[in-house]
Write a structure and sequence with these properties.
Blueprint (H helix, E strand, L loop, with lengths): L1 H11 L5 E5 L6 H7 L5 E5 L8 H7 L3 E3 L3 H7 L5 E4 L13 H4 L2 E2 L2 H13 L19 H10 L3
Parallel strand pairs: 1-2, 3-4, 4-5
Length: 153
């Protein structure tokens, strides 16, 4: 259903370029059929077997939505707005149901469109109140680990 939401947005905003990122392969025939003929949807699939360009693409994206990617959390460390599309409010194995996660969970199309438009109209707006609740800034990760290990005694 989250793909149907993306299709609605793509059709409503035909001037926008919308990319759907996949890892090493892409062959979901149901997904392909949903987006068939939607001209402003582009697929990006990793071509390299050595690395993924997801971090580079995510850091450049104007708006980020996912269903079940840890990358969504990691990009929040860069203060990027990333939300989890969860149409049936059932993605509790990946995104446990709690107060913190529910702030980034989108369970209906209206909320998705509202957040999408806010991001579109003001690319620098921080829609997430506390990014550190999801992932710490990675620039200090090694230092934080060393400090933690030093203080274990």
């Amino acid at each position: 259903e989250h793909f149907e939401w993306i299709k609605k947005i793509a059709l409503k905003y035909p001037e926008l370029n919308i990319a759907i990122k996949h890892k090493k392969n892409f062959n979901d025939m149901k997904e392909i059929s949903i987006f068939k003929g939607v001209k402003n949807i582009k697929y990006i699939v990793d071509q390299s077997t050595d690395y993924s360009d997801s971090y580079v693409l995510g850091s450049k994206a104007k708006s980020l939505f996912t269903w079940s990617s840890t990358l969504g959390f990691e990009l929040m460390s860069l203060k990027k707005n990333c939300f989890f599309l969860d149409p049936k409010n059932s993605n509790h194995s990946f995104l446990p149901n709690n107060k913190t996660n529910n702030l980034i969970r989108i369970t209906n199309f209206k909320k998705f469109e509202n957040i999408f438009k806010k991001n579109l109209n003001n690319k620098n707006v921080n829609l997430i109140k506390n990014y550190d609740n999801y992932c710490f800034d990675s620039r200090r990760t090694s230092e934080n680990i060393i400090n933690y290990l030093d203080n274990i005694n």
